[in-house]
Amino acid sequence: MTHHKKHSDTLKLGGGFAVGVIVLALIGGVVYFNMHTEGVIGSPVGITTDWNAPALNVTDVLKRAFPETDVGGRGSVSIEEQVDITGDGIPEAFVALGTGGASVEYLSLLRMDNGTPVVSKVKDIDGIVGPLQLLQGAAVLHSSDIGTVPKEDIVYQRELSYSPEDGSISSCAVQAYRWDSAETLFVYDPDASLSLQAQRCMQ
User: Fold this and answer.
1) pTM of the full predicted structure?
2) Are 80 and 100 in contact (CB under 8 A)?
């Protein structure tokens, strides 16, 4: 977890991973884990919406939310997945920021607020609020992936480390964030984190 003093700063969720380690050369391409077919990034959800419509200005929305990030600087800004996590009947969109390399990418979650696209905010374990940013991808000894549990209004990040000796999983952690409609942001949920860790780290 990257902590900043100002509430407006970006929160890059995914506690134990240093970016310098994440961007090690990936052997065999990017690895994505199909942990949970209900809303995992990369799995079909069956929900469509025109998040690619030019009128939504998704790239500009991201640039305003992440002013210190080179949005689209190393790749395309693209809609990766759509799923209704907040329960309002309108699918949110996981969007690649176009800042990663060949093996990893940062994603944010956009939602509609009275017809206007906005970047979802998150309150982390320390109560710090900032725009939601998650890591997806893998390197030789580490990987990160993203999942959702729409029925419980949850988005989560799973992080794994692997043994250099035999490639077995040496550690696994899950950080879960539940939508709070009163605060209109995702809030770190310790109970959901432990529950999902018990489930997802066995897969």
Assistant:
1) 0.77
2) no
Q: Where are the beta strands (DSSP E) in the chain?
A: 11-12, 78-83, 92-96, 104-113, 116-119, 121-123, 129-138, 142-149, 154-162, 169-180, 185-188
Using a 10 angstrom Cβ sphere, with 0-12 exposed, 13-18 middle and 19 or more buried, the burial of residue 151 is exposed
**Which is nearest to 200 in space by CA: 39, 85, 25, 83?**
39
Find out whether 17 and 144 touch, Cβ atoms under 8 Å. Answer: yes
Alpha-carbon distance of 31 to 143, in angstroms, equals 8
Q: State pLDDT tens for residues 37-96.
A: 354 444 333 334 689 888 899 999 999 999 999 999 988 899 999 999 999 999 999 999
Cβ contacts of residue 152 below 8 Å, gap of 6+?
Answer: 178, 192
Q: What is the pLDDT of residues 114-139, one digit of tens each?
A: 889 999 999 999 999 999 999 999 88
Query: What's the Cα-to-Cα distance from 141 to each of 137, 138, 152, 203, rounded to whole Å?
Result: 12, 8, 31, 17
